[in-house]
Amino acid sequence: MPLPDEAAGGNSVAMTSGDGANGGGGGGGGGGRGHHQGAGKLPRKRFYRARAHSNPLSDSHFPIPISPDEVDLSQHYPRYFPAGEGESRDGDAAAPRIRFADVGCGFGGLLVGLSTLFPDTLMIGMELRDKVTEYVKERILALRASNSGMYDNISVVRTNSMKYIPNYFRRAQLLKMFFLFPDPHFKEKNHRRRVISMQLLDEYAYVMEVGVIPEELLKADPVVKLLSTATEEADHTIARIFPLQAKAINFQNKRRESEERRTSRTRVSEEV
Amino acid sequence: MEDATVEEAEVSGAAEFAPALVAAHPLGHSVAVAVGSELRVFDLKDGSAVSLSDDSGGGSHSDAIRALSFSMNGLLFASAGDDKLVKVWKTDSWCCIQTITSEKRVSAVAISNDGLYVTFADKFGVIWLVNVGQSDGGQGSTDNKPVPIFGHYCSIITSMKFSPDGRFIATADRDFKIRVTLFPKNPLRGAHEIQSFCLGHTEFVSCIAFTCLSQGPSFLLSGGGDSTVRLWDYINGCILDTCQIQDKVGELLEPNETEDSNLAIADICPTNDGSLVAVAIQSLNGVMLLACDFIAKKLSFIKVCLFG
């Protein structure tokens, strides 16, 4: 039908002109824009390939909102924040806010999947790589064009989430944050490149709402207890605050292991 | 009671010299000046220079001093700099009671209001805390090792201050951010609860200061490389007022000096009763005075005092 296509086409044109300003500020990404598809056609990954790693320590060359009030929601979610009345809606207390954040969203798979599961929740993906962000933008536009009324609640922004999360979100604004990638950085000198670190956990805690998961569920989940006993961050904290206790725990574990080895050996020899 | 004014004057000449620093005792007893690696103290009551002594076994600073701070009650004084040392002094005898080694060069230092802890920050944005309380030396070396309590991610900390009620510690960095963190009763475990971020500066934040009436609300003042002085409600992270310095100073400087980079705020210092704020501006050979109105929550320009 010609009419929905025109409307969709008009929509995507308005979006890309806004995005062009964003992409221009980001520099690079020429490969992505050169292969701009017609409305509704999904972008092809092969034209948006980028290196897997991008340096999070370097200064940014992309525009950053000075504070959460300056995040232009009409660019990301035009259906919820029509461009004309953008100013008045941003200050509105009842206006919807971004509730889910996908840190390091990559090619946008999680966002696209969550969009239909939580159709009334605004979500944003944060990605450091320029080309990959362009791909996700094109993908969202194409999905919006070919599925009218859907995928209006997701968007992506090119940013360094390790430095600029407080610029995008107010205190206790988010319900969920997703970090779906391994982040090993084994060497001690690279530990500061980790997205999950003691320092940054403070900031993630600040932007997340308290009390979202009920107490009983937290108690029932076996992972929660292990967070404070079986993670590197826990080890650092324990060793720093309770050095004697940490040594004692270590000693107990080693003793238990050697005892188990001894008993299993005797059991085997008995069987034989 | 003397008004405590702090200025930071640029040493004229080569850019590799560290700026000279001045700090005044909160009760007006003395003034400390750091020029490069040399620390000099002048006793205002006696009207004479003070000779510093060192009990902690180290020498004087060997490289440029980057930060000075008196504690709120004036009993302790801390100096730190590029030689990776933080020296803590008692202000009655001007004797250095403790020298702490830092892993990196120190860019900011502060003493907690109860005088028990000294915090210092390095180029990577990590804030360290060390216990300088009156425990005897044999308590154990673990008590006196600096502990990282929080950090700004990979950003130089330019200024660090404790709030007047001692509940918060505010830190400013070069990525335009000011973070206000709850300072816990047992800070050795870390200061993980963020109260607010004061975001609004469009350039590096160079200096912050708390200001308050004797009884009443307190606010945070900040100055930055964007030539503005801002007043904040730091509990909620809201900006209350912004004062653009450029227009006020424009006519006083030569036309070629009014580029943005030259009009950065170098330091700010409110008076003890909070009514006046002294602002030091780069390239301005003088001090600007602003009035701080707590009821209207506004900053207003009063005058510029030029030297010479």
UniProtKB/TrEMBL annotation, chain A:
Residues annotated as the enzyme's active site: 183
InterPro entries membership: Trm8_euk, tRNA_(Gua-N-7)_MeTrfase_Trmb
Residue ranges with Basic and acidic residues bias: 254-272
Sequence ranges of Basic residues compositional bias: 33-42
Residues reported to bind S-adenosyl-L-methionine: 104, 127-128, 160-161, 180
Coiled coil feature spans: none
Subcellular location: Nucleus
Keywords for this protein: Methyltransferase, Nucleus, RNA-binding, S-adenosyl-L-methionine, Transferase, tRNA processing, tRNA-binding
Protein family (similarity comment): Belongs to the class I-like SAM-binding methyltransferase superfamily. TrmB family.
Name of the molecule in the record: tRNA (guanine-N(7)-)-methyltransferase
Species in which this protein is naturally found: Zizania palustris (Northern wild rice)
UniProtKB/TrEMBL annotation, chain B:
Upper taxonomic lineage: Eukaryota, Viridiplantae, Streptophyta, Embryophyta, Tracheophyta
Complex and partners: Forms a heterodimer with the catalytic subunit.
Principal place of residence: nucleus
Keyword Repeat: yes
Keywords attached to this entry: Nucleus, Repeat, tRNA processing, WD repeat
GO cellular component, one term: cytosol
Alphabetical list of SMART domains matching this protein: WD40
UniProt-annotated location(s): Nucleus
PANTHER family attached to this UniProt entry: TRNA (GUANINE-N(7)-)-METHYLTRANSFERASE NON-CATALYTIC SUBUNIT WDR4, WD40 REPEAT PROTEIN 4
UniProt WD repeat ranges: 58-93, 198-242
Pfam family, one: WD40
A GO biological-process term: tRNA (guanine-N7)-methylation
Keyword Cell membrane: no
Pathways per UniProt: tRNA modification; N(7)-methylguanine-tRNA biosynthesis
InterPro entries per record: Trm82 (IPR028884), WD40_rpt (IPR001680)
Protein name: tRNA (guanine-N(7)-)-methyltransferase non-catalytic subunit
Function (record text): Required for the formation of N(7)-methylguanine at position 46 (m7G46) in tRNA. In the complex, it is required to stabilize and induce conformational changes of the catalytic subunit.
Family the UniProt entry places it in: Belongs to the WD repeat TRM82 family.
Domain of life: Eukaryota
